[in-house]
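Hi C.,

You asked whether I'd gotten around to modeling the 131-residue construct. I have! Everything is below, sequence then structure, no commentary in between.
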Amino acid sequence: MGPEPILNIPVHHNLHVTVDADGTVLERRDRSAGRFSDRSEVRQEGGNNASNEANLVSWHSEPNGTLIRIENDPQSTSTMTVSFVPAGGCQLEVINRLKPGFTEYKYFRISTYKMELFSNYRVLKTACTMR
C-alpha cells in the first residue's frame, strides 16, 4: 500500500520547442505549482528517433510534419502530439498511459524535489501557438 494520495494538485507546464533545419530539437520547459517552480532543457541532435537518455525524452516527426514527443517515465509514458492546421496554427494532444503492472504514476514533485506517487494524472487544458 502506497502513501495517502494528495488530490488535485494543479501544475502548469509551458513547453517551448524549436526545430532547426537539420532536425535538431531544443525543448525548454518550465512548470509551476503554486509558489513552486522549476525549469529544464532538452537538446536532441540529429532529427528523427534520436533521444536524450538522461531525460528519457525523445522527439520525432511524421511525414505530414506532425511532431511527437515521448517521455518514458518510471511507471508511465506520456505522448504529446503537435499537429499543424491549415490556417497556420497548431493543436496539442497529450496522452498519459500507465505501464503494464502499475496502478500509480511516479513523477518528480517540484514542491519536495523527490519522486512521488500519484493515483491519477489529468490534462485539463492544452494550447498550442506557433511563431
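If it helps when you're writing up: The longest strand covers residues 25-33.

Thanks,
B.
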